[in-house]
UniProtKB/TrEMBL annotation, chains A, B:
Gene3D superfamilies: 1.20.1050.10, Glutaredoxin. It catalyses: RX + glutathione = an S-substituted glutathione + a halide anion + H(+). Belongs to the GST superfamily. Theta family. PROSITE patterns: GST_CTER (PS50405), GST_NTER (PS50404). It comes from Aquatica leii. PANTHER family: GH16740P-RELATED, PTHR43917. Keywords: Cytoplasm, Transferase. It comes from the Eukaryota. The keyword Cytoplasm applies. This is Uncharacterized protein. Residues 1-83 form the GST N-terminal domain. The keyword Cytoplasm applies. It is found in: Cytoplasm.
Amino acid sequence: MSLKLYVDALSQPSRALLIFLQASNIPFTKCIVKLGAGEHLSEEFKNNISRFQKVPVVIHGDFHLTESVAILRYISRENAAPNNLYPKDSKLQARVDEYLEWQHTNIRANCAMYFRKKWLEPKITGEELSEKLLLPYERRMVDSLNDFENLWLSSGAFITGDTLTAADIWAACEIEQPRIAGYDPESERPVLSRWLNNVRKSLSPHYEEAHTLLNKLVQKSTMKKASSKL
Amino acid sequence: MSLKLYVDALSQPSRALLIFLQASNIPFTKCIVKLGAGEHLSEEFKNNISRFQKVPVVIHGDFHLTESVAILRYISRENAAPNNLYPKDSKLQARVDEYLEWQHTNIRANCAMYFRKKWLEPKITGEELSEKLLLPYERRMVDSLNDFENLWLSSGAFITGDTLTAADIWAACEIEQPRIAGYDPESERPVLSRWLNNVRKSLSPHYEEAHTLLNKLVQKSTMKKASSKL
């Protein structure tokens, strides 16, 4: 049965699913949805792909499903995935689930909101948010990143222990995002930095492929920051 | 193997898990954690129950797990639950998961934040938030409730169709919460109101038992509102 994945390279959970499918050797067709051009807001997308008008979406045969974590679980049930990114063992799976549920209103919400307020909305409106108005968003992101380091990275090389799982993929894709807005999540967080580099290395070459556009935008943002200091 | 559930009656996901376990006839020991008295913030709780210092938590044998949705899945795997609140069929389960993932940054985040700002924080600090500062929280909650009605309740009596599932329990427990703060989610939402009453009825008597304290607080809030209008 055919599996189609609708994604945009600037959507964090889109990248997570892309990397998961590729690292698991699960065949799929990649369908690009240009969020910047508003393709997800079209009537055609709403009626034929997803009423939620977001990415990622998968279509498996004629079954349409949204929400990256729900998709991860569905695909893991439907495919005998050749690795342990989403473990079958009940307790190990519960540990991965525990992170994937925790992240929504922590790492995901707070890194994404900072990225949105600092980089995305100014791109659309042409108006930058003042430092004062940006500060609460930055504080919440910093708190989440510190919590992430303290609560999740203290017991092994990866989130649930010594083995890389989907939890690490989902976390890393969110934590890369504020780099576009000029924030370095690795600065003064040696444990997080070591973990992030472990994840990048373990998932090569899929990880850097999924982050090609992001890394270009990070480079641009770094150059802009450096030139503004001259 | 013994199953202990740590809960507080004013925690929405605590109520959801309580109702799920009772409606599924899964035996467990209920352990009350008084959030109002800060019991979850003690060193004893942090070291012996959960490093996250939140409820709900389950301890199954010596396995400690947080995050209500992760707990729901774990318990459903470990127990041959006699009903279909968390369906075994892969596609039906994906539909329940889709809602449980969607709700985190929608219904859960926005109803809980309104409750927090309007009722909980003034209880702690003694200072009420001005209507102007409360407005963005109310708007986000109203948008989420409207989205919930439009996106999830248009195809059947329950969220995923004609059968009650865990998605309905988790949603209803969140949607009850702002009632404590004097907001009626059923007002001008006939579809949501019909659904909510279906859920309450289908899960009787566990549902009203879990909501005893909440309904007392709602009554108090309604009386306060009425007397301020005299």
